[in-house]
Amino acid sequence: MPQLALNKTSLTRETRQLDTYRRFLPSLDLKRRQLIAERNKARRQVAATEAGIEGLEASAGETIPMAADRRLDLDGLVKVDRVEVGEENLVGLRLPVLIDVRLQCVEYSLLARPHWVDALASLLETLLRLRIRLGLEQQRLEVLEAAVKKITQRVNLFDKVLIPKARENIRRIRIKLSDTEKAAIVNAKIAKRKRGAA
User: Fold this and answer.
1) Spatial distance between the Cα atoms of 99 and 107, rounded to a whole number of angstroms
2) Structurally, what CATH architecture does the domain formed by 8-190 represent?
3) Does 110 have pLDDT greater than 80?
C-alpha cells in the first residue's frame, strides 16, 4: 500500500473519497434493510410451508390410514408434468418465483382400486405442490441469505473501515499542513528579525 502523501492534493482526494463513501453508505444500508426484510419474509414462508406439509401428512394418516397397506400398488399415482419458474427482481437481485405447477394423475380403473384412492390422489397432489413450493422457497431463501451476507460485508467495509480510515488520513494531513504552516511563519519571523538586526 502506498504511503499517504501529506499535502493539499492528498487532502482534496481524501475529502472527496470521504464524501463519496458517505453518499453511498445510506443507499447500501437501505438495500441491506430491504434484503433482510425479504429474507425474514422468506423464512416465514418456508416455515409456513413446512408446517403445512407436516399437518397434511399427519392428517393423511388419520383420514386415510388404509394407504399404509403395502399390498396395493400406489406408486406413480400422481406425477409432475411441468414446473414453471420465473424470476423476480428485488433491488438488483434475481429471485426464483413459482409461476405454475402442473401435475398429472395417472388413469386407473375405478373398479380395480378402492374408493379412497380418489381422496389419496387429491391429497398427494396437494402434498406434491407444497413440496415443490417448499423447494423453491428454500432456494429463494439461500439466495437471500447470500445476498444479505454480501451487502452486510459491504456496509461494514464502508462504515467500519473506509470512512474511519479516510477521516484519520484527513486528520493526519491537516496536522501536517498546520505544522508546516506554523513552521513557515516561525521561519519568516526569524528571517525578518535577522534582516532587522543586520
Assistant:
1) 26
2) Orthogonal Bundle (1.10)
3) no
